[in-house]
Amino acid sequence: MLSAQTDPDQILTTLRRRPLANVVLLKFLTSRPEGVRVHQLVSGDRVATLLLIDHAFSEYDLATYPDAHASAIIASDEPEMTRSLLPFVPRDRVLVFKLGSDDDRAIVEEAFPMERRTSFISYTSTDFSLTGETARIGTVTAEAPFHLFAAQGHRAAWLQPLMERGEAFTSTAEVDGECLSGCFAFKIDGDIWEIGGVYTLPEARGRGLARGVVQAALAELKRRGLVARYQVEDTNLPSIRLAEALGMTRFLTLTHYISATVAGR
Q: C-alpha angle with apex 84: 51 to 116, nearest 5 degrees?
């Protein structure tokens, strides 16, 4: 028998039982709770969760899907539970569905016309050591290469407060005092930290610097007893090759579908 879980703390507790599988939901619920609505159904040990994200609170979605109003992320243990979530999905607006399985896609397609747009692959690993690398870990905002991260669309106004709270650090490769490549890692929830913002100056590419800064960030997370998440779009072959060259393993592929309104159906 399905029951609705409505207590916010209990919803988070349930999602945290499988933190990597639910990493995207946890990321939004903990970072932008004012911009999301959540519906969670429980049947014994089985769980299905729907997260509705207003694009006014998601810079990426607002820029990438300007014609859509919100995103619907579904994480479900079985198709029938996914079907039970659909009445909570609004039908009077353009949506982006973000789904982690073909079973969920098939269920959603019964009620919503969908067109695939892209996929994001999440990798993880805790089996890292730093040997022979020159990347430097930084925790001081005055030394952070915010200009590099800005090239990837990451604003200093977002990253700097995280660093000041001890919830982020940078990994950089420098030559003669000039930062040529860098990335950062930041806390998502609990022990899960994400590595992002990987960028190398065009003139310094092809020298293995990106691999060095990512490897150093992974090693730092391991040293702290934390779990890494590394996300890459499925069309970004260099980043995929980097993750796999470092021995990271895939644990989630989240595919985005655009859906028009279905109010007349």
A: 55
Cα gap 141→3, rounded to integer Å? 46
Is 213:172 a contact under the CB 8 Å cutoff? yes
pLDDT tens-digit profile of 163-175? Answer: 999 999 999 999 8
Kindly report the pTM of this predicted structure: 0.92
Positive or negative torsion for Cα 211, 216, 219, 225: negative
pLDDT, tens digit (0-9, with 9 covering 90-100), for 34-93:
999 999 999 999 999 999 999 999 999 999 999 999 999 999 999 999 999 999 999 989
98 pairs with which residues across the strands?
73, 256
Burial class, 100, CB count within 10 angstroms (exposed 0-12 / middle 13-18 / buried 19+):
buried
Please state the φ and ψ torsions of residue 138, each to the nearest 5 degrees: -125, 140
Q: Is the dihedral of CA 138, 25, 62, 56 positive or negative?
A: negative
